[in-house]
Every structure is written in C-alpha cells, then in structure tokens.
Design goal:
- The protein has three domains: 151 residues, Rossmann fold; 60 residues, Helicase, Ruva Protein, domain 3 (Orthogonal Bundle), CATH 1.10.8; 93 residues, Up-down Bundle (Zinc Finger, Delta Prime, domain 3).
- The protein is 58% helix and 10% strand.
- Helix 8 packs across helix 9, helix 8 packs parallel to helix 10 and helix 11 packs antiparallel against helix 12.
- With 321 residues, it is an alpha/beta fold.
- The strands form two sheets. A five-stranded parallel beta sheet has the order 2-3-4-1-5. It has a two-stranded parallel sheet with strand order 6-7.
- The radius of gyration is 24 Å and the shape is elongated.
Amino acid sequence: MPWTEKYRPRKVEEILGQENVVDRLGAYIQNRNLPHLLFAGPAGVGKTTAAIAIAHELYGKNYQESFLELNASDERGIDIVRGKIKNFARSVPLEKVQFKIIFLDEADALTADAQNALRRTMEMYSNATRFILSCNYSSKIIEPIQSRCAMFRFTRLEKRDVEKMIHRIAKKENLDISKDAVEALVEIGEGDMRKVINLLQSAALNAKKITEKQIYSLSSRAKPKEIDEVIMKAYNGEFSEARKTLQKLMVNYGMSGQDVLDQVYKSVVRMSINDEQKVRIVDRIGEYNFRLSEGADERIQVAALLAQISLEGKKDNGGIG
C-alpha cells in the first residue's frame, strides 16, 4: 500500500497545516450538513484527504456506498457528466445522512461544455447530492459553479507540519532518519506532502537508515550547497570549472536541464549580490527556461546560462567569497 494512503487522516481535524479549513469543515460535519464545496490549492496539501475524511465522518465504514470519487483529468468530457455523475446524483441516499457526495478531483481539467452540464446537474439534484470539486486553479472553474460552492483555499504546508509528518511516519515504520535527511525532504517537497511521503517510502525500500545522500539521489536533485558551489565558480570567473562540475552533477544525479534551472534559480536568489544583478540573472534564467520548453539542447542552454552568470560576475569584479 502506498504510504500516502496508509497515513491519510480519517478525520478532518487530523489534517495538518490547514487550520482555517479544518475549523470550517468541522462545523459542517457537526451539523451533519454541508453545501457544495470547492477546494482550491497546490498539489499535495490535503484537498483529496479532506474530501475523503468528510465522507468517513459522515458515513462511517460504508462511506463508499454514498461517496463517488472521480478524477476529472481522466474523464473530462460532457459524457461523464451525463453518465456516471448524473446517474449517481439522482439515486436515493442509503445512509442516515440525507445526501450523497460526489467528489470531482482535478475539476479544472473539465471542458467548458462539461462544466456547464455539471452546473445544471448540481442545481437539479442538490437535495440528494452534494458536490465537492477539487482543483489547482479556481480561475479555471466557471463562475456559475463557483457561485454555487463554498470556497476553501488550501495553502502549501509549513516546514513544521512537514517535519511532524516525517517523524510520525519514521516512528511507525521504525526508520532511522538523519536531521539532514529531514531537511532534504522539506527542501525537495516544497510544501507538497504527497511528494515527501512518496520519496520517503522509496528511500525506506533500500534501507531503514535514511540519509541526505539517499534523498537527493532518489529525487534527481543536487544538494543546494553543490549548486551554490557551481554558481560561485561561474560568478568568480571560473567558467570552465563550473561547467565541468555541473555536467558531473547532472550525470551523477540524473538531472534534466529543467531540474538544473529550478535549483540555479533558488541559488541565485540566495546569493549575496545586489538586487540589480539578481534581476538580470533571473531574467536570463527565464529566457533559458523558455528555450528548454521549446526543445533547445539542454546542455548547451545550461552552459550558456553559466556564461551569463560569469559575465555578470565580471561586472561586479569583487566576486563572491
């Protein structure tokens, strides 16, 4: 079983890092009633977990009889609304709760026609069925649907919440995880708990002792200090050495050009140079990111970015210590 499922909370109050959302949902559950809901926010922050926890609390062990979960990115056309969704919405609730729940994950993937058909279905069967829509971007949901739903905005998880979950899993799975490995998981996860848990499970398959090196190797990312070293060499005029070091990192960690740009961007933001120079370098990073998205050779583009950083360093003359 994936650990994302194994450690998924079964009660809304157990969801980490979304206190405002938890308080509001808790009030609905206590009253045994709720409106249509729209969950919006980045991936891996608890949207699907919140929907399933609501179903568990309202319907108990047999929640699947009154809860239909669909992924709109797989079935995104008007036929899914006219078929599965409409048939389930019109059926009579079997539990003591007077309504069923249809959970549409990644609802922003629904076509415009499907969303318009869904709007009418939500209207017609609201007495017997409640809809929970989950999306990354609420702006992609049409206004008539947004106006029918109570909006809940989920935010990226704070470092303390991610660390709390890591230590909880490590304790239950008897893992020996170093402090540096925890820091690496937090750094790579960027507030996405699903990514963190999947990466931790992958590391645990190899050994019960989890190290920083394992985490970065499995995630195809270099350590931040290794990228910082490359940037410092380029900025201080050691372009050839910086290029060789970066090529070695790309081979050792299996990094793509996009992976490199993501980490270089973070490294540049941390650099102890003036904002004017940071602006120029970040502007170039954006340009090379676009070139990669258009299919340009990643090794040439990454080397060209290092060249731009080296030229910027020449303007500074002082370099970075």
